[in-house]
Design a protein that fits this description.
two-stranded antiparallel sheet, mainly alpha, 481 residues, cell membrane, Hydantoin permease, 2 strands, CstA N-terminal domain-containing protein
């Protein structure tokens, strides 16, 4: 329990200390923001700071810091360290720069931002990566809530069409179409802050439930400083890929431009982008603690956690909520867990629309132009929604962290051009390169070559990426001679 509180204090302190260092390095100023300069009434709309924060939190969170953190708990309390330090030194940095670089470039999509600083080849890679990732995320965040709604109806003894996952999947996709199509302030700006608060209350309820039940004890990191995974999955780099949204997530960089288009001042970035990531890290820490506390047995984590996770994210979340909060708490938590992923899913499809619009230069103020992109995107989502969820999630996890890696290298090049401390982003970029490349060589759904090949290959490639970056920083100096 002490480890949990130490990590919680580190996360809060990280926001005020390291987050301020990140902000001072970027140096926001009083220039006119895209929301003020463009203000098209559809995607560029000024919103107050508190609303920006809650919408950003809801956009980047969904089931990510909940289900990913619970899966991470299979490794034991050592996952607390990745959530804590990953959030402070990687996730918060990634989210801040992805949002602020978009803001500095008229709120453009992250793929276009990467093209500005890393060249056209990387821009095209990021375009494809972004659209694929966003459609997968939107689909994942439709299937999960649909399953949870069905679970609730079945628990209540209700059958028929209301207990059909297919029915609710199509209902959610229909909502996605509406939210993706209309202006950002009509639904997202009005009701999302309420659900953002609900997400926070749900996490608070879970941790209070743990502390008020004597049978639940959060294990200490120093007593379990090794992998406790029942299947023997290695910490490096599978755990780092699995937790994803609770520490760092490339998906966030696709969402940050949405709020970059709605900021009145650059100085709001620290609270909106870095702050929302820290809040997500706290939520992930709580759910990881729940996974460790509720299912731990003598000798390590039992298959109880892996068994409940095998039944799907809906069953796992329902089990934790029912054990920690009981009736009223479960009702509140279930509403939050149903709504929050849906609200991340619709902004995923909205971001995909904007990426395609920037890619093909399709102006979005007219209904017909937005319709041109919304229909095929939601059609693709409907198809993917009928695939095996676990397979979609695996590919999402690797694609997600690879995107984060590329965005951090983009921020590094920006800082180099601005003659600022690029090591602030180059170090986490190198680390995430090692994580992503190691997983690519190790995972069965990728090359499946095992740790003997994956470990050295990941490290060598990460070192190679760093060498390429450092070489690129030397080229202008040589050309000037």
């Amino acid at each position: 329990m002490i480890s949990f509180f130490l990590c919680l204090l580190l996360l809060i302190g990280g926001y005020f200390v390291y987050g301020k260092i990140v902000e001072n390095t970027f140096a926001p100023d009083d220039r006119e923001t895209p929301a003020v300069k463009i203000n098209d009434g559809v995607d560029y709309v000024v919103m107050p700071q508190w609303k920006l924060f809650l919408v950003q939190l809801l956009n980047i969170a969904g089931l990510g810091p909940i289900f990913g953190a619970m899966q991470g708990a299979l490794w034991g309390p050592i996952v607390f360290l990745w959530i804590t330090f990953g959030t402070i030194f990687a996730g918060g940095v990634h989210d801040y720069f992805s949002g602020m670089l978009s803001e500095r470039n008229n709120g453009t999509s992250i793929s276009e931002v990467c093209g500005i600083y890393l060249g056209n080849a990387m821009k095209n890679v990021m375009r494809v990566f972004s659209v694929v990732l966003l459609v997968m995320v939107g689909t994942v965040f439709a299937v999960g809530p649909a399953g949870l709604i069905v679970t609730l109806f079945k628990e209540g003894g209700i059958g028929g069409i209301l207990a059909s996952t297919e029915f609710w999947l199509w209902i959610i996709l229909a909502y996605y179409f509406i939210a993706t199509f209309i202006s950002i302030d009509k639904i997202i700006g009005r009701i999302y802050p309420v659900f953002g608060i609900c997400l926070i209350i749900m996490a608070v309820g879970v941790i209070i439930g743990i502390f008020t039940h004597s049978e639940f004890v959060i294990p200490e990191i120093w007593n379990n400083f090794s992998s406790m995974h029942p299947d023997g999955a290695p910490i490096w780099s599978v755990m780092f890929i699995t937790v994803a949204c609770g520490a760092i997530s490339g998906f966030h960089s696709t969402q940050s431009p949405l709020m970059a288009r709605c900021m009145k001042s650059e100085r709001q970035g620290h609270f909106v982008f870095y702050g929302a990531m820290v809040a997500e890290g706290v939520i992930a820490l709580i759910w990881a603690a729940a996974g460790c506390a509720l299912y731990e047995v003598t000798g390590g984590l039992s298959t109880g956690l892996s068994a409940i996770l095998a039944n799907g994210q809906s069953a796992a979340i329902y089990d934790v909520c029912s054990k920690t909060m009981g009736g009223i708490g479960v009702a509140l938590a279930m509403i939050g867990v149903i709504v929050c992923p849906i609200t991340s899913g619709d902004t995923a499809f909205r971001s995909a629309r904007l990426v395609l619009a920037d890619w093909f230069k399709i102006e979005q103020s007219k209904y017909s132009k937005r319709l041109l992109l919304c229909v095929p995107l939601l059609g693709a989502g409907a198809i993917i929604g009928h695939l095996d969820y676990t397979i979609v999630w695996r590919y999402f996890s690797w694609t997600n962290q690879t995107l984060a890696m590329i965005v951090l290298w983009t921020a590094s090049m920006y800082l180099f051009r601005e003659k600022k401390n690029y090591w602030l982003t180059a170090v986490p970029a190198t680390f995430m390169s090692a994580v992503s490349m190691t997983y690519f060589f190790y995972a069965k759904e990728c090359l499946g070559l095992g740790t003997a090949v994956a470990y050295p290959a990941g490290i060598i490639l990460a070192a190679g990426f760093l060498a390429i970056f450092l070489y690129a920083t030397r080229k202008p100096a040589k050309a000037a001679k």
